Request: fold
Amino acid sequence: MKVLLIGATGNLGIRLVAALLTHGHSVVAFVRSSNKLESLLPASVYRQIAVVQGDATDAVSIKRAILDANCDAVVNTAGLAALPPWGNSELPAIFQAVVAAVREAGVERKKPLRAWFLAGLGVLYYPGSESMLSNYVPIYLEHRQNLDLLKSLPPNTLDWSMLCPSTMTPESSDFSVPTKLLHGKLIASAATPPSWQDSWIKYVPLIGKTLLCAMNARRYETTLEQNAEFIASDLESLESPWSGMTVGVISESK
Ligand SMILES: NC(=O)c1ccc[n+]([C@@H]2O[C@H](COP(=O)([O-])OP(=O)(O)OC[C@H]3O[C@@H](n4cnc5c(N)ncnc54)[C@H](OP(=O)(O)O)[C@@H]3O)[C@@H](O)[C@H]2O)c1
Reply:
């Protein structure tokens, strides 16, 4: 596929450049600074991609980038959610602009585009309930409003998926192609975290489920490379099993 990668200079974005190329995709990187991207990538990799400079809050520029390059899919890794519940970041504005741009490009193409978005573990449901994990550990709440926006879209306007990892750590700072995955692939599940470990601790009055979320959280740490590989691999097929879903992930070794 031809993929517009928004936020290619970030921790996940830069690894997605390498992962997408490794999976045979064409990459159009949408970044604020092409110089920064060029300084981060090996010259042999930078030569293989197209670069568009722009701001991810500018829906018009994003839509033009999609249509001019004839992209089939979009991955947005731009913007970083604020951690405290009272925090504000640019992420919701970026998210709204990207969603608007991808929708409008789909209307012009007469076919909804495929798009991957990023959120966090907190928008997944506590297993066996309809309560989000962020009701028990209220951090990175901006992801919730982003998910609400996706869920409010009329059917067949955007073929979205939302990856919901916990903390992602780097495996390496080698962004050459092909990529080498050191930590194995991810196991994924829709809407809830895969392989949740239950415990009697959840019955502790008032704080039991919060304690259990905190105990589980470390198990869901994955690497940036694993998540990049997951998205790049999913985009190999036109029909994704994760279409219209939030997706929880865990390392197969955990
Ligand atoms: N890292 C984690 O552990 C983790 C865990 C769960 C979820 N997430 C989510 O995953 C996403 C990616 O995380 P990350 O660690 O890769 O973030 P990051 O390293 O902070 O990267 C953010 C990217 O967004 C770009 N950006 C910010 N504002 C922009 C704007 N107005 N226009 C264009 N580009 C803009 C930055 O570009 P510049 O280089 O120009 O600043 C950078 O490339 C975030 O939404 C984050 O909330 C991260």
